[in-house]
């Protein structure tokens, strides 16, 4: 039996996925969670072989949840099911040790097949997305991504500098580098493009 914890903030989607998976003779949804922190608490109980999670959720995102599973070396496979067909998200998911990455518009039976595959130690990645992910990389450094995320929260350079314990000049340098790499005119355009690509 493959034991699954399902993390999805949209109630209707969570209920539908849970019902579909429980129809499978060899799959049991042992818990559902409305956000990443709730999912993390469920994973502590040790009643899961696979975590199925969305990417964007309140609080802890699916990617951050996958990173936490990896950092704590939990014996749990992670499968992301999302609407985000962005190569940047896939690349970051793979770096976080994710075993599966499927789109929500895929046929329902694909998810059950993917869970069986990753449970056996394989990988289940949407093939079109996998191709796109390795054709063009994320040009930003981790620090540039951190700075742009805070730009997206509406922070000024001084606020970002205090949050990250950097000088304002250093923050301006990171922003200038990111703007140059992305070929845009200002910090807001840089944040918008990086988010659109799934790099943030």
TrEMBL record:
The modification 4-aspartylphosphate is found at residue 54. One of its GO terms (molecular function) is DNA binding. Pfam families: GerE, Response_reg. CDD domains: LuxR_C_like (cd06170), REC_DesR-like (cd19930). Residues 3-119 form the Response regulatory domain. Residues 133-198 form the HTH luxR-type domain. GO terms for biological process: phosphorelay signal transduction system; regulation of DNA-templated transcription. The keyword Phosphoprotein applies. Keywords: DNA-binding, Phosphoprotein. It comes from the Bacteria. Gene3D superfamilies: 3.40.50.2300. The keyword DNA-binding applies. InterPro entries: CheY-like_superfamily (IPR011006), Sig_transdc_resp-reg_C-effctor (IPR016032), Sig_transdc_resp-reg_receiver (IPR001789), Tscrpt_reg_LuxR_C (IPR000792), WalR-like (IPR039420). PANTHER family: TRANSCRIPTIONAL REGULATORY PROTEIN DESR (PTHR43214:SF42), TWO-COMPONENT RESPONSE REGULATOR (PTHR43214). This is Response regulator containing a CheY-like receiver domain and an HTH DNA-binding domain. It comes from Frateuria aurantia (strain ATCC 33424 / DSM 6220 / KCTC 2777 / LMG 1558 / NBRC 3245 / NCIMB 13370). The lineage of its organism: Bacteria, Pseudomonadati, Pseudomonadota, Gammaproteobacteria, Lysobacterales.
